[in-house]
Design goal:
The chain contains six helices and eight strands. The termini are far apart. With about 190 residues, it is an alpha+beta fold. An eight-stranded mixed sheet has the order 1-8-7-4-5-6-2-3. It has one domain: Glutaredoxin, CATH 3.40.30.10.
């Protein structure tokens, strides 16, 4: 006697449930929600290798080298005191830095402005205490093809540039935090 099609389906379902209950199958739900790169309008970069090394003088007169940042996700933000959109996004950068572990994440700002007192006053008015590096000859900006301000480059823990945002962003948004946490895992 031949089992009916419905009995066969029931039998297959029962076997599947038994195997599932014993851990024979695993299921991981697909990621939900929008892609953080897309939702923040960040262009993905396809460079495969690490970014070229750099060394720039900081606002406090110390040299900072890219090797000082190795092993961390880096948000590298190019800005200027005369840039209105830069002023708009700077506080959100500071709030993002406060939300994430400084052992795993670092925001570094880079400017071509060469007036330390003006920069200190600008940051003081905004209540922002982020590191500022001087790109005096704009060599780093040229290498990273910075054409407008603000421009932000996202760099993975192994030094690969993976994202570029031109224009201001709400860096302290839940999408931005989710993106940085995603980069921690890459």
């Amino acid at each position: 006697m031949r089992p009916s099609r419905s009995r066969g389906c029931v039998l297959a379902l029962m076997i599947s449930l038994l195997l599932l209950s014993q851990g024979a199958f695993s299921y991981s739900a697909p990621p939900t929600g929008p892609d953080p790169f897309s939702s923040l309008k960040i262009s993905r970069l396809s460079e495969s290798g690490p970014m070229a090394a750099f060394g720039l003088k900081s606002l406090d007169g110390q040299m900072m080298h890219s090797s000082d940042l190795s092993g961390k996700v880096i948000l590298l933000n190019f800005w200027a005191t005369w840039c209105g959109p830069c002023k708009e996004e700077m506080p959100s950068l500071a709030r993002l830095q406060q939300q994430l572990d400084p052992q795993r994440f670092r925001i570094v700002t880079v400017t071509a402005d060469m007036q330390p007192q003006g920069i200190k006053q600008f940051l003081g008015q905004l209540g922002v205490g982020l590191p500022v590096l001087f790109d005096e000859d704009q060599e780093l900006a040229r290498r990273l093809m910075v054409r407008g301000l603000p421009t932000t480059i996202l760099i993975t823990q192994d030094g690969r540039p993976v994202g570029r945002a031109v224009g201001p962003r709400a860096w302290d948004s839940s999408d931005a935090v989710a993106l940085m946490q995603r980069l921690f895992k890459e």
